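TICKET: design request
STATUS: open
ATTACHED STRUCTURE:
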């Protein structure tokens, strides 16, 4: 799995806010056959694979790891809508 510079910068900004627990990170998994991503302030569960990119933790559900290997986590700045995106790496 890859993560873009834009996504890392956004995660850094989110983690830098007051009140965000030090254990917080980004959680990736599978739900209803789709890949999901969410902010997780609790930290990793025992079964998670923890990937650290530039000092930022990404918690990947064990059952989703193989599926996510060919994904890129990105952040998109749009008109009135800023969001994280998971997209397939088509290299």
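STATUS: resolved
RESOLUTION: sequence designed for all positions
ATTACHED SEQUENCE:
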């Amino acid at each position: 799995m890859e993560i873009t510079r834009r996504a890392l910068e956004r995660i850094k900004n989110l983690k830098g806010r007051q009140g965000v627990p030090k254990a917080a990170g980004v959680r990736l998994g599978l739900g209803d056959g789709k890949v999901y991503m969410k902010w997780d302030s609790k930290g990793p569960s025992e079964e998670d694979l923890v990937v650290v990119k530039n000092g930022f933790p990404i918690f990947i559900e064990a059952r989703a790891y193989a599926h996510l290997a060919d994904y890129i986590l990105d952040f998109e700045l749009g008109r009135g809508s800023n969001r994280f995106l998971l997209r397939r790496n088509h290299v």
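CLOSING REMARK: Residues 27 and 38 are 5 Å apart (CA to CA). The longest helix spans residues 5-15.
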